[in-house]
Amino acid sequence: MTRSFSAPIPLSLALRWLAVGVLLLTLALSLGRAAASASAGVELPGSARVLPVTGGAALPPPAHLAERELLASFGDSLRGASGKLLSRIIPAAEWTEIAKELGEATAGNGGVLELHATNDGAPFAFLALRDFTLKTGAYVGGYRMGYWPAELRRIRSSAYGNPSGFVEVTQSNADTRLSEHFVLRDFLTHDQDDVWPKYLVLREALVDKLELVLDDLERSGHRTNRVIVLSGFRTPAYNLALGDASGRARESRHQYGDAADIIIDANGDGRMDDLDLDGRSDVGDVRVVERAVERVERLHPELVGGLGLYQAMGPSGPFAHIDVRGEAARWTRSRSRRAGALAPGRAAPVAGCQATGASAVLCSRIRRHPRR
Question: Cys bridge to 361: 53, 69, 101, 249, which one at CB 3.0-4.6 A?
């Protein structure tokens, strides 16, 4: 008779099986306790943290989620070519819809909707553009505007048509940041000090170009932490009251919100800084700005416009006029040290145009293709 038998199990293998069994039993008991605690409503200790299933960081509040989605919907253009814009001007109807979507109250904020869910933490503002039809006669509300050329006569091109609308500026929103260097107040007309709200015509492209110019100057080693807008938007009434003799030409681009006269005043003395390091504040410093403008326009032809260099036109000394009219125009005035006669500076005449002050409008009519 043949016997059958099993070979003995090695001791090491038996011990491994035993260890696995103990581990499985311990895990089952732990899971059972956790389930019992949850069903009994046992509170977790204060040091305990409950993480999302994904293991990521805690999600932002729903309001910030909506803000982020809104900001993302504008794509890379939101911050402009400079990457320094902190505001966007949009039609009032669209602005109201956005405010409703975000659950924001619109009363009393002067048409400024400030969002804080940006990647870098800097607030981003949406400004309501109120339609031109808000204007009644020479006024928008209680603020005197006067009349644009297109309201009075036939204009020579669409570039001189009526603006599409106005940004309302109140005492509470006047310091809303438009970009890294500029706030709303910087571009207001210097008139009607006691009248609020005021109304402003402004193009984002101008602010974007100014930031690009300042960035270029920074890369060249110049401090631009303080920039003064000597003149931004000018109401037609203000422009007319000053008269052509003041240098505010009747067709000035300042009336259309796409021009600014600026000085770089990092040292805070109220005058153009010594950018060319020759020991004085003169037109040579403005020519440093001119070279920056030329470089910006070559890189961004969509921002081409006028450039005027002015030497000692007031207590602020020399300054630069920069605009985004859509066509290149240059004017300057300087004196030849030898002849004492008017001579062109680095801002070369355009098609023979050489003008300053009230005659600067003549150069705005000269067209040339921007350099590529």
Answer: 249
Q: Which two tokens stand for residue 130?
A: 């109120």
Q: State yes or no: pLDDT of 341 exceeds 70.
A: no
Listing DSSP states for 227-270 in one string gives EEEEE----HHHHHHH-GGGT--TT-GGGGT-EEEEEE-TT-SS
What is the pTM assigned to this prediction?
0.74
The helix/strand/coil state of 331 is strand
SS3 210: helix
pLDDT in tens, 43-59: 444 443 333 443 344 44
**What digits encode the pLDDT tens for the residues 266-308?**
999 999 999 999 999 888 999 999 999 999 999 999 999 999 9
Looking at the chain, the number of H-run helices and the number of E-run strands are 8, 15
> Using CA atoms, how far apart are residues 115 and 67, in angstroms rounded to an integer?
7
User: Which own/partner pairs from 149-155 qualify as long-range (CB within 8 Å, at least 24 positions apart)?
Assistant: 149/236, 149/250, 149/251
- Tokens 């500029």 belong to 182
312 burial type by CB count under 10 A (0-12 exposed, 13-18 middle, 19+ buried): middle
Strands 306-310 and 329-332: parallel
Q: Which residues contact 311 (CB under 8 A, 6 or more apart)?
A: 282, 283, 286, 317, 318, 333, 334
Q: Any idea what DSSP says for residue 279?
A: S
State the DSSP string of 87-140: EEEEEHHHHHHHHHHTT---TTSTTEEEE---TTS--EEEEEEEEGGGEETTEE
Average pLDDT (330-349) is 45
Beta bridge partners of 264: 227
Task: Specify the amino acid at residue 241.
Answer: A
DSSP lists the bridge partners of residue 325 as none
Terminal CA-CA length for the chain: 107
C-alpha 366, offset from chain centre: 29
